[in-house]
Amino acid sequence: MNVRKVGLIGAGVIGAGWAARLVLNGIDVALYDPDPEVERKVGEVLANAERAYRKLTLAPLPRRGSVTFARSVEEAVADADFVQESAPEREDLKIRLLAQVDRACRPDVVIGTSTSGLLPTRLQSGMAHPERFTVGHPFNPVYLLPLVEICGGERTSEATKERAATFYRSIGMKPLMLRKEIDGFIADRLMEALWREALHLVNDDVATVEEIDDAVRFGCGLRWSFMGTFLVYRIAGGEAGMRHFMAQFGPALKLPWTKLEAPELTDELLEKIVAQSDAQAGDRSIRELERLRDDCLVSVMQGLRSHHWGAGEVLAAYEEKLYEASHAHVMGAGDDLAQPLRLHEARVLPEWIDYNGHMTESRYLQVFGDASDALFRYVGIDEAYHRAGLSYYTVETHIMHLREVEAGVPLHVTTQILGADEKRIHLFHSLHRSDDGTRLATAEQMLLHVDTNAGRACPAREDVRERVLRIAAAHRDLPRPDFAGRQVGAPRR
Amino acid sequence: MNVRKVGLIGAGVIGAGWAARLVLNGIDVALYDPDPEVERKVGEVLANAERAYRKLTLAPLPRRGSVTFARSVEEAVADADFVQESAPEREDLKIRLLAQVDRACRPDVVIGTSTSGLLPTRLQSGMAHPERFTVGHPFNPVYLLPLVEICGGERTSEATKERAATFYRSIGMKPLMLRKEIDGFIADRLMEALWREALHLVNDDVATVEEIDDAVRFGCGLRWSFMGTFLVYRIAGGEAGMRHFMAQFGPALKLPWTKLEAPELTDELLEKIVAQSDAQAGDRSIRELERLRDDCLVSVMQGLRSHHWGAGEVLAAYEEKLYEASHAHVMGAGDDLAQPLRLHEARVLPEWIDYNGHMTESRYLQVFGDASDALFRYVGIDEAYHRAGLSYYTVETHIMHLREVEAGVPLHVTTQILGADEKRIHLFHSLHRSDDGTRLATAEQMLLHVDTNAGRACPAREDVRERVLRIAAAHRDLPRPDFAGRQVGAPRR
């Protein structure tokens, strides 16, 4: 099935999201929606989606597909290779529209519906070719979230579900094949249970909508972005795993911790859960799963930190407090300045590794930049200094890459000041493995002190300048580093 | 309240998680748990937590607190400034332990319990000083997840809840104050509703535990890591917001989409939800909220990509497919080589911005590295080439930083080959703003072709070498770039 054009029926939030995912993946779409404002609304969703894709990946996207606004259902699906219906959630409306689509498009074309939970057997009841119809239930925003639930009705063919899954996969999605037809499928049953419980909490004045959202986004929601409840609870069982967890929390299923009654925890259900959980975990130990969970949590929280939102905002505030508490880093009268300074330590993180299996080149400069930041703190530059519009900028850098380094290796940087005046610091960083001392790289840099509001060089504040000059004086007689003053490609001395 | 030492009662998964968060924040702990293996188990959780914190932040952590294993409840709490009880979820056991703690510790000490849902009024029933007792319900892993629910019993004082919140905040957590005492508090009621629905699905053979987890982690779970259901649904309502969403999906509350009955959607409940949702959203428009949501989703998925897990694995597979599809990037016979090559475009992402409000220095090198990667693809280097153990490594770099740049600015790199032989490429990249052409930085680099298995230089494959030399020959007569051959600190020519 080579899909070059998709017919979209309904262009609300979901239909417009499909349009965005499709055109960004190089597929033409023809849309039908009776809303007179459809062009503007779809255009705005497309703009947001393009913006998101520019951030999502640096990989080359195909040439954008085209968008046509059709004047009828028939026109939208006439020469489509695939059809996706995203009309409002009314069974009668969908049955009628789907029968209309069925009559108007080629008989080999798969017809998907975006319904969140209506039964496909009923939706396909008016179709002459019901075998080519399936649920393909996406999640908002359709252009970013990978999940699509595939659920056939009684008259849907297996081939249709496979073809739909292949197509959705080709546009970056993750199909989940349902084994049974059920109202709400899987995802919406879970979401709906949580949602109805939340509505009870608001109705009973236990919590506000904001408090309920906070209870999710600062806690369990962070885990759910990469592990479902079963795997999370397996880990919570500790070394003894799922059986222990169920033994420990089984009794809580009888407690009034939600208005939903749990099923009886029979031996049969317990054994089924344990066996399926074992299969899910594979040969990963609980400690390995814990580390995977922690790595994912750290990455998620760091990702959110860039947007000053949710758990990322909590992390940013926490870090600010840590930096404020570390005033001891400022240079003191008794400090030994007779050697290069050792102010920064780090460890090679897994996400710093490139396709060669080693720390990627820009991370070397990141570590050197962090070492410069440590030097700034050491000479008395703090948040207030930056808020006052004063800062050092790097104007020139020369790096020698001497050795590769793998994930997990501890690192430290030593820093020698080669020269300084009231505006400039000329320094030389050396990056070492801390386990065996091997030198991995060097960076010679020129830093310029600037008035960031005026955008031009200016002298550093007197106390900062005094500390910088004191270090420079103490370092004046240290041996000049081997790679200082080097130009790219010069013969090794 | 200056907390220097915390007494911990119970050191299972939750108690050990508290120990880890506390000692990493410089607080001493004394633990009591009758488990004979407690020292080993706590040690393993501490090791995982230390590992996670090394990744979580580069901010300087305080000097680690100490861990003491006490032989009794009394010994653990004797000189504690705060006590946290994390015994198994049995009401009788907790009542007994809390009364024991109450007798043994200073009367000014706040006593928190980690219970997931037992009622504080009952838990404090055996205490002589019940006013200093509160629920402080954390989430696993306690050392990473910020949420802690604070819920007092009938005899808890307001001051106790405030003091507990201040303390939890000081160790990087996000307290959520409950207005009402209720079984399961807020978070566990939501989690428990979803969990019980999930157990029904397994019990009824609708889905396996893995399928249920997938329905969360590839869809709604990604959103829940930064927005709860109310805000997510407000956005799903499109421009018309929460009232429209409730009008559209209100009828679904009557559908059998979960085994949990919803409350009646009365006008009063509807108005309450709309008003609280408006308050939550503040003055953010739906389009702004959409962009915030998309930015967070992109960051979360990119974070997970580094761990080849969940939605991150889907993204990685998608990108690999995009790169494979872009074979047109390989140099063709008719290509114009008379100018520097323009092979790479990017855009300044918000997370590339440092405390000065500009793109941080290491991101310049990242963009240059991506431009080198684009050059490699252009001369015919693909995944198979790397899998065969062949690659170019950067051995030396000189960067000139000429201008600052802010988030959102489109960038492109032009690349001139200054010289090449069978093993080396000497190149010069220039980074420009694409909107007005301003040159932002330059990078002169020496790349060496290596046999990555043997770890030494070797000639490039013949077709790759031929393309490199052809570009070098075509670029030989281009003007030599102004900053080529420069050493750090040399006078500007």
TrEMBL record, chains A, B:
Reading the lineage from the top rank, the first entry is Bacteria
Residues binding NAD(+) are G10, A11, G12, V13, I14, G15
- Tell me the pathway: Amine and polyamine metabolism; carnitine metabolism
Matching entries from InterPro entries are given as: 3-OHacyl-CoA_DH_NAD-bd, 3HC_DH_C, 6-PGluconate_DH-like_C_sf, 6PGD_dom2, HotDog_dom_sf, L-carnitine_dehydrogenase, NAD(P)-bd_dom_sf
Chain ranges of the 3-hydroxyacyl-CoA dehydrogenase C-terminal domain: 184-252
Role: Catalyzes the NAD(+)-dependent oxidation of L-carnitine to 3-dehydrocarnitine.
Annotated organism of origin: Benzoatithermus flavus
Q: Please report which protein family the annotation says this sequence is part of.
A: Belongs to the 3-hydroxyacyl-CoA dehydrogenase family. L-carnitine dehydrogenase subfamily.
The main enzyme category here is oxidoreductase
Q: How does it assemble?
A: Homodimer.
Q: What is its main location?
A: cytoplasm
Reactions catalysed according to its record: carnitine + NAD(+) = 3-dehydrocarnitine + NADH + H(+)
The identity of this protein, by name, is L-carnitine dehydrogenase
> CDD domains of this UniProt entry?
4HBT (cd00586)
The upper taxonomy is: Bacteria, Pseudomonadati, Pseudomonadota, Alphaproteobacteria, Geminicoccales
The EC number of this protein is 1.1.1.108
Database matches in Pfam families: 3HCDH, 3HCDH_N, 4HBT_2
